[in-house]
Each structure stands twice: as structure tokens, then as C-alpha cells.
């Protein structure tokens, strides 16, 4: 990698995706004598919470970088601690949905995925971990089914056995990427569940942005980042960890239709903003 980079002679090295990538980008940029950018879309330190030496390496990379971007203001504030002795600030470069996520016909999407056409369907996608509070979605859904016994919860990926076997759950497993916009559009409601953890307090869920782009109603745990994404619209927010309130919001929002959400920037606009940050460091 080092030999290839020396031959290529990059102006910038960009570290993203996790803590290790940030540290390796820092080491590579130092060896090549080029500029360094670090981008964080999660609190990467929460991925390996007990690896304190790696956390210090990550913070050193953040402190040294010429440009540091974060997916939202809460994460930017956290990263700024590593740069407190510098005048350079952490910039917010928000996430946005893949351009493939646009409103599609619900009936066509359900037919494509062999989903029932006339049942209220709720969707949940993502990893099942304590840091995300994933298990709480089952409790909230069970509460909802007391009022709407024909409701279905559609899951993708690899949820645990107790989720797949729960009454009313439809498990689709792993799907091709080009099916995911249809998964979102097949739903009457998208569920975004987070917990009050080192991960959850700094998470900006891609699935939330995708649901918003498709104009599907959501119920989302009211963490600070999620409330920021939704512009504090209380229609879509449920208290973190409160499955009773979450179930109430589920029932209310199933009948919202296609709501309007705060506008999202396009990939090209974000790329221009990112490019301008690089230009401003020269």
C-alpha cells in the first residue's frame, strides 16, 4: 500500500469507516507528507469500547488531521475535544440517502417482495445489538398487535431466532442492494430504535435518512442526533427506551400517508461541500 501510494503521490489521505481506518490514514499521510482528512459517521470508539490504546491512536489522528468531518453536531462536539488545543474546528457533513431511495408504488414493491398487500406493515432493518436497543422493537410491536392484530413486522438481515419466531414477524433475510428501496417503500411505517449508549447517543441512522427520502412515516427513538435529523418534529419521536410510548406512536403514524420531511442534500452537493473544506485548508 505504501509503495503504491508513493507512486500515486496523493494530495490527501482520507480515513473513514472506523477507528483503525483513521489511525492508518494518519500513519500513511505522515509517511507521504500529504494532507489528512478524517470523516466519522458514528462514535467509532463505541465499536471496541475496551480498546483504550486504539482510542488514543484515533484521537491522535483526529487531533492531527487537516480536515475533520462528523455526521452531525453532537458527534462533532465530541470529536472537537481531541482538537481543543487547535484552532481548527470539526465540521458537520451530514449523511444523506442513496439516490436510489425515492418514493415508489407500495403495491408494486410488496408484489416484488412477496409481501401481503392488505395488511399494515412496519419495517425494521439493521443490526441487533444492545447499543441499538434492537430487542425493544419486539416489545413495542407486541403492544401494537394488541390493538392491531393483523399488523406485520418486516425484518431484513439476520435478526436473532426470537425475533424471527415472534408472532406477526415476516423475515426477509439478506436482500440485494437494489431491493432495499422496495423494502422501505413497501412499508406503512419504518421503525428506528436506539438506546442511550455510547453508540446510540451519536448515531445518525442511514435507515432513517432512507425512509425520509421515500417519504415513509417513521417512529424513531428521540436521541439528540435523531431529533436533529427530524428537525425536532415530535410526531416522529418516541422517548428512548419507552416501548409503551413507542407503540402508541406506531399506531398513530401508520395512518400518516406520505409525510413531508426536512430536505436532504444530494450527494453532489455534499461532495462540493467536502471539496470546499479541502480548498479552505490550502
Question: How are the strands ordered across the major sheet?
Answer: 7-6-5-8-9-10
Residues in helix, %: 25-40%
Q: Can you count the beta strands? A: 10
Quaternary: single chain
Q: Which architecture name of the largest domain does CATH use?
A: 3-Layer(aba) Sandwich
Q: With helices defined by DSSP (H or I, 4 residues minimum), what is the helix count?
A: 12
CATH level-3 fold name of the largest domain: Rossmann fold
| Tally of separate domains | 2
- What integer is the average pLDDT? 93
**Termini separation (Å)?**
26 Å
The secondary-structure element order is HEHEHEHEHEHEHEHEHEHEHH
* Shape, per Cα inertia axes: elongated
The structure class reads alpha/beta
Low-confidence stretches: none
State the major sheet: 6 strands, parallel
Name of the CATH first level of the largest domain: Alpha Beta
Protein topology:
Layout: H1 2-8, E1 12-15, H2 19-32, E2 35-40, H3 52-64, E3 67-70, H4 73-80, E4 91-92, H5 106-113, E5 121-124, H6 136-147, E6 152-156, H7 161-164, E7 169-173, H8 180-185, E8 189-192, H9 206-214, E9 218-221, H10 224-229, E10 237-238, H11 243-253, H12 267-280
Parallel strand pairs: 1-2, 2-3, 3-4, 5-6, 5-8, 6-7, 8-9, 9-10
Helix pairs in contact: 2-3, 6-11
Structural description of this entry:
This protein has 282 residues and is an alpha/beta fold. It folds into two domains: 2-94 and 266-280, 3-Layer(aba) Sandwich (Rossmann fold), CATH 3.40.50; 106-253, Glycogen Phosphorylase B (Rossmann fold, 3-Layer(aba) Sandwich). Helix content is 40%, strand content 14%. The protein contains twelve helices and ten strands. It has helices at residues 2-8, 19-32, 52-64, 73-80, 106-113, 136-147, 161-164, 180-185, 206-214, 224-229, 243-253, 267-280, and strands at residues 12-15, 35-40, 67-70, 91-92, 121-124, 152-156, 169-173, 189-192, 218-221, 237-238. The protein has a six-stranded parallel sheet, sandwiched between helices. Strands 1-2-3-4 form a four-stranded parallel sheet. α2 (19-32) packs across α3 (52-64). The longest helix has 14 residues, at 19-32. The protein is elongated and about 60 Å long. The mean pLDDT is 93.
Amino acid at each position: 500500500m505504501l509503495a503504491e501510494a508513493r507512486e500515486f503521490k496523493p494530495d490527501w489521505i482520507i480515513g473513514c469507516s472506523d477507528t483503525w481506518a483513521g489511525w492508518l490514514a494518519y500513519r500513511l499521510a505522515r509517511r507521504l507528507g500529504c494532507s489528512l482528512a478524517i470523516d466519522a459517521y458514528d462514535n467509532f470508539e463505541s465499536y471496541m469500547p475496551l480498546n483504550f490504546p486504539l482510542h488514543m491512536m484515533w484521537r491522535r489522528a483526529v487531533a492531527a488531521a487537516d480536515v475533520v468531518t462528523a455526521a452531525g453536531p453532537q458527534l462533532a462536539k465530541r470529536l472537537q475535544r481531541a482538537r481543543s488545543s487547535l484552532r481548527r474546528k470539526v465540521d458537520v457533513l451530514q449523511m444523506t440517502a442513496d439516490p436510489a431511495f425515492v418514493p415508489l408504488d407500495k403495491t408494486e414493491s410488496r408484489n416484488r417482495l412477496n409481501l401481503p398487500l392488505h395488511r399494515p406493515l412496519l419495517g425494521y432493518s439493521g443490526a441487533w445489538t444492545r447499543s441499538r436497543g434492537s430487542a425493544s422493537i419486539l416489545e413495542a410491536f407486541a403492544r401494537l398487535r394488541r390493538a392491531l392484530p393483523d399488523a406485520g413486522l418486516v425484518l431484513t438481515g439476520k435478526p436473532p431466532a426470537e425475533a424471527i419466531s415472534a408472532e406477526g414477524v415476516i423475515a426477509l433475510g439478506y436482500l440485494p442492494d437494489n431491493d432495499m428501496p422496495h423494502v422501505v417503500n413497501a412499508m406503512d411505517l419504518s421503525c428506528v430504535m436506539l438506546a442511550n449508549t455510547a453508540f446510540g447517543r451519536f448515531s445518525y441512522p442511514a435507515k432513517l435518512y432512507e425512509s425520509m427520502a421515500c417519504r415513509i412515516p417513521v417512529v424513531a427513538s428521540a436521541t439528540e442526533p435523531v431529533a436533529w435529523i427530524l428537525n425536532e418534529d415530535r410526531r416522529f419521536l418516541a422517548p428512548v427506551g419507552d416501548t409503551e410510548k413507542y407503540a402508541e406512536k406506531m399506531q398513530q403514524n401508520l395512518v400518516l400517508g406520505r409525510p413531508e420531511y426536512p430536505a436532504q442534500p444530494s450527494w453532489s452537493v455534499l461532495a462540493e461541500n467536502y471539496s470546499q473544506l479541502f480548498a479552505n485548508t490550502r
